[in-house]
C-alpha cells in the first residue's frame, strides 16, 4: 500500500491510499501512453490500446531471481532516461520496484546462449501470466541489458514493441545491419521477424510488450 498526502480544505491534509494493483495500473497507463503517443510506421495498425484478458490464477512461466548480476546497472539505467515522458515512466517504475520481480526466460541456458548474456539481461514483468497484473494478454514489462551485451538474433510468433527509455542501444532486423536506436524511438517486430539488440558503454532499459497471446518459452534463435 502506498500513502499519498495532499492538501485538504478543512483539516489541512488528507491521506489517500493506493493499492498495489493501482500502482501497477498507473505505471502501465503511463508507459502505454508513451508508446501510443509515438507515430508507428505504415502498416503497423496493430499497435492499439490492448484489451486485458485477466486470469483468476497465476501461471508461472518465468525463472525469477532478484539477484541477477545485471540488476547492479538498474539505477544507472533509470537515471539515463531523458526529460519528458520517458523520465516519467522511469520514475514511476522506480516507485513500484518493490512490486516487480525480475526474471529470465526459463528456456535460456548455456546450451543456447552465452553466460555473458545470462549475466547481462533481466526482464521485469508488470503484466502477464506471472506478473503483478495477472493476465494472458498483453505481456508488458521492462528489459534491462547491461553494457556490452548482445541479445542475439531471435524470433517469436506474437507481434512485439520496444520503447527504449535510454540512449545508445543498437537494433538489427532480419539479420541485417546494426542501427542505433534513440531513446523514445519506437521499434516494432512483426510475427517471426528476426531481431537482435546490442548495448554499448551504457546499460539499456526498454519498455516492451507482446499484444497477442503466446508462450514466453516459444522464442527461437
Structure description:
This protein is α+β, with helices and mostly antiparallel strands and 221 residues long. It has one domain (25-210): Jelly Rolls, CATH 2.60.120.10. It is built from four helices and 15 strands. The strands form three sheets. Strands 3, 4, 5, 6, 7, 8, 10, 13 and 15 form a nine-stranded mixed sheet that branches. Strands 9-14-11-12 form a four-stranded antiparallel sheet, with no helix packed on it. A hairpin with a 3-residue loop joins strand 1 and strand 2. Helix 1 (20-36) runs antiparallel to helix 3. The longest helix has 17 residues, at 20-36. The protein is globular, with a radius of gyration of 18 Å. The termini are far apart.
Mean pLDDT: 93
Strand fraction equals 25-35%
- In CATH, the topology is named Jelly Rolls
CATH homologous superfamily classification = Jelly Rolls
Number of helices: 4
How many domains is the backbone divided into? 1
Structural class: alpha+beta
| CATH-derived architecture | Sandwich
Amino acid at each position: 500500500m502506498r500513502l499519498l498526502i495532499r492538501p485538504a480544505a478543512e483539516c489541512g491534509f488528507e491521506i489517500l491510499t493506493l493499492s498495489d494493483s493501482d500502482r501497477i495500473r498507473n505505471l502501465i497507463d503511463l508507459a502505454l501512453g508513451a508508446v501510443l503517443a509515438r507515430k508507428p510506421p505504415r502498416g503497423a495498425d496493430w499497435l492499439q490500446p490492448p484489451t486485458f484478458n485477466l486470469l483468476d490464477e497465476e501461471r508461472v512461466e518465468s525463472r525469477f531471481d532478484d539477484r541477477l548480476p545485471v540488476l547492479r546497472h538498474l539505477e544507472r539505467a533509470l537515471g539515463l532516461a531523458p526529460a519528458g515522458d520517458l523520465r516519467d515512466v522511469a520514475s514511476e517504475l522506480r516507485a513500484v520496484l518493490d512490486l516487480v520481480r525480475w526474471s529470465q526466460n526459463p528456456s535460456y541456458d548455456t546450451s543456447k546462449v552465452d553466460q555473458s548474456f545470462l549475466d547481462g539481461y533481466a526482464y521485469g514483468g508488470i503484466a502477464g501470466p506471472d506478473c503483478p497484473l495477472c493476465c494472458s494478454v498483453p505481456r508488458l514489462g521492462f528489459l534491462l541489458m547491461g553494457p556490452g551485451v548482445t541479445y542475439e538474433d531471435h524470433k517469436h510468433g506474437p507481434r512485439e514493441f520496444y520503447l527504449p527509455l535510454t540512449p545508445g542501444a543498437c537494433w538489427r532486423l532480419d539479420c541485417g545491419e546494426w542501427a542505433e536506436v534513440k531513446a523514445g524511438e519506437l521499434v516494432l517486430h512483426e510475427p517471426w521477424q528476426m531481431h537482435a539488440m546490442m548495448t554499448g558503454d551504457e546499460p539499456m532499459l526498454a519498455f516492451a510488450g507482446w499484444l497477442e497471446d503466446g508462450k514466453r518459452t516459444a522464442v527461437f534463435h
